[in-house]
Every structure is written in structure tokens, then in C-alpha cells.
Write a structure and sequence with these properties.
6-stranded mixed sheet, 24% strand, 512 residues, D-tyrosyl-trna(Tyr) Deacylase, Chain: A, alpha+beta, 6-stranded antiparallel sheet, Beta-lactamase, globular
Length: 512
């Protein structure tokens, strides 16, 4: 091949005739090379890949034996052409008529309504990117009722749902107040009134945390547990440590590398539940690594306010003991506006790490009212309307949250497929949407999923609930063709086995 390439057919001083002769000679001497060029420009599939018929046969064979009432699989070629998904059409008697589109490769129970688990987040994500825009930002505003010679009577912090308001954000906000020349504050008021129907935690685990217009640290506490010498109490440091959370009980350090301990609210079911105290039990081995435990935050505005006061004090600002929740009066001096990162970055965190809290905060943003407040129910209505706009108006789907945590959610695989196709073809948001998904074996919830063959090009969203496993996203096959796929399994007795099946589907697509 090297000798062929050395023929000087592209020399700038050659005549057109010489160029033509050179090209013909090149193809005569290297027909295999010319044929390969033709194949790469739309000819037959590359060596090692399979035809569409073979791909369909392999998918059908792999899907045999899956429960017809609890399983769905949908695959479409999205390498080019028009949108390719089945739209349900109302027929006489109310039944749906399936219309096979050009790009669809395989469909089994794709119109059946099943639990999507966290795969539902792809609907929330694309709806938010299209309706709010990738550059949308949340704001947190700081007001003062009076600022006389560096003294403020009452400082108000008003939130509008920023899911990224963290301890670092609080420090930036405190520095901003310090730089305004404020030396003392009599009292603090935390304003979370812009959310009309916020929800509290559904449980003590971090993924069960609630929502708030003034959220903080993803509305979760963390406790870092580190061993010491055997026989000693382990080190347990809460975050934010500025809050000085009371800890009851101990975690004992023992010999070895095992860890078996718990960190729970001390009074979860009593009138004392508002007391921020946690009970420690169990042990950790002296050879074990430090472990971080996350717990839902009962009252984010108050936690933020107490932490914010301590940060201000550490910067030399005198802050009185008054701290309460309340509304911000009108016509106050605005001292500072804290902007969140763009929505596109929040969506990336949402899907990479499957963060339920971020999904719910975005849901409120989608539900902004004419009065400037935010309604969760209005947000849900907009998400449902978005899905209906893709052609599923009479499908009877149920969307009860933005995260997929609820077992009451019901959507079909072809609905998720329609979102995936829309997400990759709407060039106004396609880069942000696709890059928000976890990368197989590299990032997010897919980082520790070992795929075979190694190096498969996969971007996807996982979903897991009790008895439910799902996976949806995009795979690039050996031929260079790109496939969108959705897998729902709603009667899984074993999560590892469910993952193994999903991985086999990904492998089949990657080899096509």
C-alpha cells in the first residue's frame, strides 16, 4: 500500500490528464482500498458488524422468556433521517394503532405502561432544557430593611429554588455582605415562601429529602466517620460543622477492616423531631477507610440560616441570636444576588448522579406562576403537556414526580424513546441533553458497570427501584451507526441479573 501512495498523482504541476491516469492506476493497483472507501460512504456494513435483520433477530432471541406484562424493549437507529418512533393514534374503540417508522429496529411491549424508575429523569431534563433554556439560572437574593453606617437591623435571604446552594455558596454570599461594609446584623430572616407547595422529606435517607425554595447542601447532612485506635470512639464530623449538630451515642473503633454502624435521627417519631440531633450506634474497624453517611435535612431554610450566621461571624460580622423564617417585605434594599450555575450544568449533575433532589427543584422552576411564585403541581402539568406534545395525548400515562422515585409513575418505552429522539435531533439543546447522560464505565451511575465488549460507546440513564430496573440512552455500533434504546424490567428478583440482561442488549447493539 505504501508504494501506491507514493505515486505523485496529486503533484500541483501535473496536468488534468495525468491526474486522471494516476487515479485510475491507483484504483487498479489497489482495488481493495477503493472498495473500502466506497463502503465508508454508505456502502454495505463494515466487517464485524451485522445487518439490521440480524440485529433484530439477536434482540428478539435475547428477549425471549422476559415477562410480557413486566418487560419492554425499544430500539431505533438515529444515525440520520426523520424522527423514528411510533406515535399512538386514537382508533375506533379507543385502541392504539401502531405505525412503524423508518428508523425503528426492534419493539417489544414498547407501548405498555410500566414503572420507569429514574429513567423518568430524561423527560424532566429535556422538558426543562426546551422550556427554560440551557442558560436558565436560579437566583438567591439578600435584602436589608435598613443599613446605617454598617449596621443592619434585619437581613433577609430569599430563595427561589437553587438546587446548587451549598456551603461554598453561603461563604460567597457572606463575603459579599462583608464587602458591602456591613459590620453588624441584629437578626436574620430566611424566606422560602416562593414555593407554593413544597414537600418535606419522605424519609431519612438523602435520596428521600424534600424540596425548598431556600435549599442548602442538596437538603442533606453528611457525617464523616473515621476510625481511631482500637477501643476509642470513632471520629464523627457532621457537615455543615458550623451548625454544631448534637450527637447521641458513639461508634466504637475495633480491630479489623469491617464497618457496621448507623447514624439516625435521635427523635424521628416524636414531638422532639425538630431537634437536630442524631444517634450513633455500632462499630468501625481500625483498618477501614473513612465513610461518609448522608441523611435528609428536616428544615433547610433554618439550617442555612444558622450556618450562614456562623460564617458571617467568622468573617468578623456581629450577628444577633434572632433567626426565623418569614416573608421578605417589598421595597427593601437589595444587597446581593447569588446566581446558580446554568441549567445545562445542573442537568448534567441530575442525570450523571441520578439526583432526585435536583429533579424536584427543577420541577418547581417549570411551574413558575404569573405571580412569580413556583408550583410543583403546575410543574408536573407542564411535564405532562411536554410529553403529550410528542404525540402521546391519549396514552393514559402517569407522571407523579420529576425523579422517578414514585412507584405510581407509568410511561411506555416508546415514550422515553420519543424523548431520546427529540433530545438528539433538537440542535438547540442536543449537546447539553446528550452530554448530561452518564458514560459507560467512565462516569456517573454507569462508572462501575463493566460492559462487554470493553470500550463500548454508551451514554445512558439508569433506573432502580424495588423490583424495577431500567436503562435508556444511546449506543454507537461497530458500523458507526447510532442507536437509541430503552429497556424496562418491572419484575426483577435480582438487580445483578437485571443489569446483566441490560448489558447484553448494549453488547448486541455495540456489535451491529
Amino acid at each position: 500500500m505504501r508504494n501506491y501512495l507514493q505515486i505523485p498523482i496529486f503533484a500541483p504541476r501535473r496536468s488534468f490528464l495525468g491526474l486522471l491516469v494516476g487515479v485510475l492506476l491507483f484504483c487498479l493497483l489497489g482495488p481493495a482500498f477503493c472498495l473500502a472507501e466506497g463502503q465508508s460512504r454508505g456502502g454495505p456494513a463494515e466487517e464485524g458488524s451485522v445487518s439490521r435483520a440480524q440485529l433484530r433477530e439477536r434482540l428478539e432471541q435475547q428477549s425471549r422468556g422476559q415477562g410480557s406484562e413486566s418487560f419492554a424493549l425499544w430500539v431505533s437507529d438515529v444515525s440520520g433521517g426523520s424522527a423514528s418512533f411510533d406515535r399512538p393514534k386514537a382508533a375506533q374503540g379507543g385502541s392504539a394503532v401502531k405505525e412503524e417508522a423508518p428508523g425503528e429496529v426492534f419493539s417489544q411491549n414498547a407501548d405498555k405502561l410500566l414503572k420507569p424508575a429514574s429513567v423518568l429523569k430524561v423527560i424532566t431534563s429535556l422538558a426543562a432544557l426546551e422550556l427554560l433554556g440551557p442558560q436558565y439560572r436560579f437566583t438567591t437574593r439578600v435584602y436589608a430593611d435598613r443599613n446605617e453606617r454598617g449596621a443592619v437591623k434585619t437581613l433577609y435571604v430569599q430563595g427561589n429554588g437553587d438546587p446548587g446552594l451549598t456551603i461554598e455558596s453561603a461563604s460567597v454570599m457572606a463575603r459579599a455582605i462583608k464587602l458591602r461594609g456591613i459590620e453588624s446584623i441584629e437578626s436574620l430572616v430566611m424566606d422560602a415562601s416562593l414555593f407554593e407547595d413544597e414537600r418535606g422529606p419522605l424519609g431519612q435517607r438523602a435520596f428521600q429529602t424534600g424540596s425548598s425554595a431556600l435549599s442548602f447542601n442538596y437538603n442533606a447532612f453528611s457525617f464523616q466517620v473515621c476510625p481511631r485506635m482500637p477501643g476509642m470512639k470513632a471520629s464523627v464530623v457532621p457537615d455543615p460543622f458550623e451548625l454544631k449538630i448534637p450527637l447521641v451515642g458513639t461508634i466504637l473503633t475495633k480491630k479489623g477492616g469491617q464497618a457496621s454502624f448507623s447514624v439516625e435521627q435521635a427523635f424521628p417519631n416524636s414531638a422532639q423531631a425538630a431537634v437536630l440531633s442524631y444517634r450513633l450506634k455500632g462499630s468501625i474497624g481500625d483498618l477501614a477507610d473513612c465513610t461518609t453517611v448522608y441523611r435528609s435535612m428536616p428544615n433547610p431554610p433554618v439550617v442555612f440560616g444558622a450556618t450562614y450566621a456562623e460564617i458571617l461571624r467568622s468573617m468578623g460580622v456581629k450577628v444577633g441570636s434572632g433567626l426565623r423564617e418569614g416573608d421578605t417585605p417589598k421595597k427593601l434594599d437589595q444587597l446581593y444576588v447569588q446566581e446558580s450555575v446554568p441549567l445545562s450544568q445542573l442537568i448534567r449533575d441530575l442525570n450523571n448522579f441520578s439526583n432526585n433532589f435536583i429533579a424536584e427543584q427543577i420541577l418547581f422552576a417549570l411551574g413558575q406562576t404569573e405571580l412569580g411564585t413556583y408550583s410543583r403541581e403546575r410543574g408536573l402539568a407542564r411535564v405532562r403537556a411536554f410529553l403529550s406534545s410528542l404525540g402521546f395525548k391519549d396514552s393514559g400515562f402517569e407522571i407523579e414526580d420529576a425523579s422517578g422515585l414514585s412507584h405510581a409513575n407509568r410511561v411506555s418505552a416508546q415514550m422515553i424513546g420519543a424523548v431520546l429522539l427529540r433530545g438528539v435531533r433538537n440542535q438547540e439543546v442536543a449537546p447539553e441533553f446528550e452530554s448530561s447522560l452518564a458514560v459507560g464505565e467512565r462516569s456517573g451511575t454507569l462508572r462501575r458497570r463493566p460492559f462487554d465488549p470493553r470500550g463500548v460507546i454508551l451514554r445512558g440513564k439508569t433506573g432502580t427501584l424495588d423490583g424495577v430496573s431500567s436503562l435508556a440512552g444511546y449506543v454507537v455500533g461497530a458500523s458507526g451507526r447510532k442507536y437509541a434504546f430503552v429497556i424496562f424490567q418491572n419484575a426483577t428478583a435480582s438487580t445483578p441479573r437485571a443489569h446483566a440482561f441490560e448489558d447484553k442488549i448494549v453488547a448486541i447493539l455495540s456489535q451491529s
